[in-house]
Amino acid sequence: MKAFTTGPFTGKHFAAIMVLFFGVVITVNLVMARAAIATFGGVVVENSYVASQHFNRWLDQAAREKALGWSAKAERLADGRVAVVLAGAPADTVLNAVARHPLGRAPDQALTFARQSDGSFVSVGPLPAGRWRVRFVAAAAAQRWRTEQDVQ
C-alpha cells in the first residue's frame, strides 16, 4: 500500500476518499436536477388517467386523418409570418394553428391563415422570433386534419 503514499493507508485517507466521492455524486445530481427543472416547460396532460381513457379514440382520429392523405410543409418568411403549403386538401380548406414554445417560456400564439392565389397559406400576423412547435388544424366540410411541425 505504499506505492502512492508516503505513509500507511489510514481511516483518514478512506474517509477523505468517501467524502470526495459522495461529494462529487451529490454535486452532479444537484446540477442535473437543477438543469432538468429549469428546462421543463410544464405539464404534458392535466390528468394522465383521464388522458389514458381517450387514447383509443385519439388513435382512431389519427387513422382517419392519415387516410385523408393530406400533408403540410411550413416555413417562416423573412417578415416573420408563417407560410404553409398544404398538399392534397380541397380548395375550401380553412387553416388555423397554435404555436407553442417548446420549453413553455413564451405564451402560446394563435395563428390564422389567409389562402394565397397559388393555394398556399400565409399567416395573417408574424410569429415572434425563436423556435416554435406549431400545431396546425385544417378543416374542410366534415373533414378535419391535424399535424405538428417545428418552425424556426
Structure characterization notes:
The protein is an alpha+beta fold and 152 residues long. The chain has a domain at 70-151: Immunoglobulins (Immunoglobulin-like). 32% of the residues lie in helices and 31% in strands. It has 3 helices and 7 strands. It has helices at 11-39, 48-53, 55-68; strands at 71-76, 82-87, 94-100, 109-115, 121-123, 132-140, 143-151. Strands 1-2-5-4-3-6-7 form a 7-stranded antiparallel sheet. A hairpin with a 5-residue loop joins β1 and β2. The longest helix is centred in the first third of the chain and has 29 residues, at 11-39. The radius of gyration is 26 Å and the shape is elongated. The model has no long low-confidence stretch (mean pLDDT 91).
Keywords:
152 residues; alpha+beta; Immunoglobulin-like; seven-stranded antiparallel sheet; 3 helices; 7 strands; elongated
What's the CATH class label of the domain at 70-151? Mainly Beta
Q: What characterizes the major β-sheet? A: 7 strands, antiparallel
Strand content: 25-35%
N-to-C CA distance: 60 Å
Q: Structural class of the secondary structure composition?
A: alpha+beta
Helix content: 25-40%
Counting DSSP E segments of at least 2 residues, the number of strands comes to: 7
Principal-axis shape equals elongated
Detail the poorly predicted runs: none
Mean residue pLDDT: 91
What string, H for helix and E for strand, traces the elements in order? HHHEEEEEEE
CATH superfamily of the domain at 70-151: Immunoglobulins
| CATH architecture annotation name of the domain at 70-151 | Sandwich
The helix tally amounts to 3
The rounded Rg comes to 26 Å
